[in-house]
Structures are given as structure tokens and as C-alpha cells.
Write a structure and sequence with these properties.
Largest sheet: none
CATH class of the largest domain: Mainly Alpha
Strand content: under 5%
Helix content: over 70%
Number of domains: 2
CATH topology of the largest domain: Growth Hormone, Chain: A
CATH architecture of the largest domain: Up-down Bundle
Number of helices: 25
Order of helices and strands: HHHHHHHHHHHHHHHHHHHHHHHHH
Amino acid sequence: MEYSCAADGVRFVKRLAQSRWMMLVASFFVMSSAGGLYAFGLYSQEMKITLGYDQETINNIAFFKDLGANVGIIAGIVYDFSGAWLVLLLGSIVNVFGYTMIWLAVTGRIARPAVWEMCLYIAIGANSGAFASTAVIVSGVKSFPQNRGMVIGLLKGFVGLSGAMMTQLFKAIYGRTDSTSSFILLIGWFPSFVYLVLMFVVRPMKAVQAANDKRKFYVFLVMALLLAAYLMIIIIVHSFSKVKKSSDQALAAIMILIMLVPLGVVVQTELSKTIPGKDEGEGEGEGDEISTPKEIQQGHQQQTILPSVSSSEAVKITDIKEAKVLLSTDANKPAPVPSAPHSTSALHNLWKTFTTELTTRPSRGEDHTLIQALSSLDFWLVFLVATCGLGTGLMVIDNLGQLGASLGYSPVRVSTFVSLVSIWNFLGRVGFGFMSEILMQRKGVPRPLFYAVISAISMIVNVIMALNVSGSLYIGSILIGMSFGAQMPVLYSIVSEVFGLRFFGTLYNVATLASPLGTYLLSVRAAGRLYDQEASKEWEHRQALSPAAPSPALHTSSAMLCHGAHCYRVSFFLMAAVSGFGCLLSLILSLRTRHFYKKQMGRQP
């Protein structure tokens, strides 16, 4: 009897580990620890003061942070041809190295590094976010293709929420302190630990749609909203009162318990499959099909059967073979006839294949190769829209520390703004992820139309912040966080739907290049220089009033600080204009894809 119970327990654990729902829950934990890059505003001011940087330098460092976080092409290629586990392993390595080096520099444990070295360190550390996102989002979309908007919304939502979660974890571990250097250390070791623990759980599972799938997603949504509300209460409490470390530890424990709710749902689902009288593969309409270990080891390889041969002679075309070409997914295309000399023939065949890719483009919704996507006007419209939207959002998020200081807010209040951005970032991601999925399925509403709404919200809030109306920074923290977060599920759903899932890992990361491009143009080249110009004018005015004022060359960190709403006024008006342009492009993309999304209407599980 004891042997039988032990055997049942082993089978249950094995079944739990092979459940696609368990994979999704594990992805929640990965993404909840992967958003330290969104808390840059929490420690950028200390970095600026301790290392003596001006605002343009800080914005350059922020640009390389966003560059590292979004240049995940290597992660996409590794995922497409190896597996999610290796992507997470590499992510853990780059995370602990990059952020540890930044911590050593800020705390003075190593010699003051050059600016280019700091840019390199933060690019390497932030690149772990690209590895983590690639592993979980591509696995999630491939496992739940009929609910991709909900999957992406939840996963990217937890990244948006992770800034507030990591802040609370920081207070529980290190205590309430004015120094944020320990926070850098935390985002160096903790995400790496989570990636290593869960790297063999997160992987693509065979997509099988069941009647109660949406019910589980709604349960997860309620849990996520409960977590966001709880974190909002914690933020308010910390803003108006001092909390002891023991209380912070209790609050963090409750936060973790809320995070465990989805795990309880998965366990209950798997337990229901072991009811006597039911087959082991049955459950309440679940019907998950489990990938074999061999399939998992081969990276969830797909098969294409040539119709001209019998099933016994079927030819299996794997991802690895297709990677040698990466230019065509047409398995029926006859192989080119070699000609002499061999080198000339190889170049000729490569050129012929390349030109064929450019002239033969799949329809929307079919699998596109990288070349086919890059030669599509739809892709470049998506890319430009994302550049405008993500660039304007990150300009505000990356400059929150300096923006709060210029308006006279304390470091505690600035921490509140960072947490507010994190909360509303999360709500925007899950809200628009679910909303766009429901309206697309029921009404055929094009997803790009949601991007137009998001851009319009961003345009309005930038005007409000430029005018510096009462409470504008609180309003901006909420609406910028929401509009920035809402872009993620909409953007990645568009890419997966219009260009297919075959090379989604690579195309997903190419699309995210819009983020560092927008950051460089709008945050570094525009906002950073405009801030330093205002700071320079302010210093010259102080020097005129008091000739004994310190020289900027000697006290750069203090001399190059700007105080007042004028520091960012022109930048905000510029961001409003860019958001308006992005709104116009989104409307054009909506018109181009309206018939495609009408066909998607009624796509039910």
C-alpha cells in the first residue's frame, strides 16, 4: 500500500512537471523577477551623484540598458534552435555579471569605471531580461496559441509589476535605507537564482485547446489584480509612514503567498485527473497532451511531410536543417541543380533563394521568414509605431529620478513614483492583453487600433506633464505606466498573428529593437541634451549672482542639476508630438489589416 502511494505520488509530480499550466505558472515567477531594468529610476540618481555623471551620460547609460534589454536576437536564435532552458541559463549568467559589476562601481569597491564600461555592464545585465522574455513568451504563445493576447498580457504584466515586487523584497531583505546600492545587488543575484531553478520547467508544450482554458486565465487575472491592489496598498503605507523591517518581511511573505495561488490552481487541476474511474489522461475537459522527453530534448521540433512520398518514407525536416537556410519554409521546393564551379553555384543558389524570398511573400497569418518579414510594409509600420510608443514611454520612466528631483520631491516620493509606474505598467499589460483578445475574437477589432488608443493616451499625458498641472507627476506615473505597459501584449500579438509562429522567437526580438532605437532618439539625443542645456543656463544664472559658485568641471554632479518644471517642458511637448505621429501610423496599420482581423473573429478555443 505504501509502495502504491509512493508510486502515485511520483506519477503526480511527473504529470505536474509536464503540464503546460505548470509551465505557465513557472513563467509567472520568472517574469516577476525579470523587471529590475524598469526600476532604473530608483538607483540612477545615486549612480549620477557617486560617479559624477551629467544627465546626458545617465541617459546614455539608460539607452544601453534598454538596448541590452531588447536586443535579444541571440536569445531568439538560441531558442529557435536549442531550447528555452539554455536561454534561461545564459540569462542568469549575464544578469549576475552585469549588475554585480555596477554594484561594485557604485559602492566604490572597484576603481571608477569609464562611461563606456558602465554602458557595457548595464547592457550585459539588462540583456538577461531579453533572454527571460524570449524563453517564457515564445513558450507561452506556442503552448496557448488561441489565447496569445491573454498569455502575453499576463507574462509581460508580471514584468511590469516586478519593479514594485523587487522593491518590497529589497525592503524585507535589506531594510528601509536611503542607499539604493543594495537594490542593485539584489537585482543581480535574485533573478539569476530564479532562472536557474525554473529553467527546465519553462519549455514549449504541445498546444491543445480545452473548454475551460479561459476560466483558468480569468482566475490568473483575478490573482494578478489582487496582487497589484495589495502592492498599491503597500506603496501608500510606505509613502505616509515608516515601516519596520519585520513588518516589511511580513508584507513580503503575504505577497509571495498571493503569487502561489496559480500554483494551487494547477495542483487542483492535476489532482482532478487522478479521480478513480477516469483515465489518467482525462480531466475536467482539460485534455493536455504531454510532450515526450525526446520531443523536449529536440527543442519541440516540427515536422513537414512531403506529399509525394509514402508515410513510411516521410521526410522529417527539423529546425536545425531549416536554420541552414533560414530563408524558406517551403518544403516542396525542388533542390537546385548544382553547376560547376561549385563556389559559383553556391553563390548563385544563395542569391536565387534570397531573391525568391523577396518576391514570394506569404499572406498575413502564414509563417514568414526573417527576410520575408523585413520586406513587408506591415512589419515596418509595426516597427515605427513601436519606436514612437516605447521610446516616449521609456523617456519618462528612465528620467523619473531626475524629474522628481527637479520638482523637489524626496527620494521616498521618487520611489513611490517608480512603484506607481510598475503597478500601472502591469495593469496596462494585462488589461489591454485581455481586452484586445476578447474584442478581436468577438468583434474582429484590429489589434493595431488598440495601439492608436494607447498612443492617444500617451500624447494627452505628455501635454499634461509639460504644462505641470497640479499633481502632474502622479498622473503621469499612472498613465505613462499604463500606456507603456499596454503596448507589449498588443505589439507581440500583432507580430505573432501577422507573421506566424514559425520564427516568432527571432521576429519577436527584431521587433523589440524599436525600444532602444526610440530610447536613443528621444531620451538620449532629445531629453538628455535639453535637460543639460537647462541645467547649464541655471548654473550660469547662479554664477552671475554668486561668482564664487563652483565650476561644473569640479562639481559636475551638483552643478548640472536642474530645478523646476522648465527642465523637461520642451521634452514633454516633443514626446506628445511623437505620440501623435505614432497614433496616425497605428490607424494606417489598422486599415491595412482590418480584413485579416475580420477573418480572425470567432477564433474560439
